[in-house]
Write a structure and sequence with these properties.
The chain has 8 helices and no strands. The chain has 2 domains: 105 residues, Orthogonal Bundle (Rna Polymerase Sigma Factor, Chain: A), CATH 1.10.1740; 58 residues, Orthogonal Bundle (Arc Repressor Mutant, subunit A), CATH 1.10.10.
């Protein structure tokens, strides 16, 4: 993939939060994590042509970050107390699983929101806009706060059940 393409730039910028969280789960120092993220970004940029379009970019980026974490640990091993490599491997594996589970839950949530009635979907969208509140929605709709809260509770319960159903279907596949 061309590193100057809009698609690659979107992939690398879109993955920053996930890759930083992954690095933090392995080194737990904000300064070091920032440094490692920058090193990872440079490597991703330099090796953009190695990325296969359509594959999981976050997984590729996290694997690259993993090697930078190991290199960083080796460089600074004498300066601080560090985890042994088996623990780092275990943490990396668990974080990869969490990232996959999180992605699956977000995908399931998106699908479940689409299944809501238009009325319910609009209510959820209104509630989670920046600065929105139950009080403002109740006032705008001429309803009580309790009625709006109860409607939101029912919608959230429906979404939770839908997400659990979607996730369980993925686990049985």
């Amino acid at each position: 993939m061309d590193r100057d393409s809009e698609e690659f730039i979107e992939l690398i910028t879109g993955a920053q939060t996930a890759v930083y969280a992954y690095i933090m789960s392995l080194c737990q120092d904000h300064t070091q994590a920032g440094d490692i993220l920058q090193e990872t970004n440079i490597t991703l940029w330099r090796k953009a042509e190695n990325y296969e379009a359509g594959t999981n970019f976050k997984a590729w980026a996290c694997k690259t970050a993993y090697y930078h974490v190991l290199n960083h640990r080796r460089k600074f091993k004498r300066e601080q107390l560090v985890f042994d490599e088996d623990l780092i491997d275990y943490l990396a594996e668990r974080q990869e699983q969490r990232a996959e589970e999180s992605d699956a839950r977000v995908d399931a949530l998106r699908g479940c929101i689409k299944k809501l009635s238009e009325k319910n979907r609009l209510l959820i969208e209104r509630r989670y806009r920046p600065g929105a509140s139950v009080q403002a929605i109740a006032s705008d709709d001429g309803k009580t706060e309790g009625a709006v809260s109860q409607a939101l509770f029912r919608i959230r319960t429906t979404l939770q059940k839908c997400i659990e159903t979607q996730i369980s279907k993925l686990e049985t596949v």
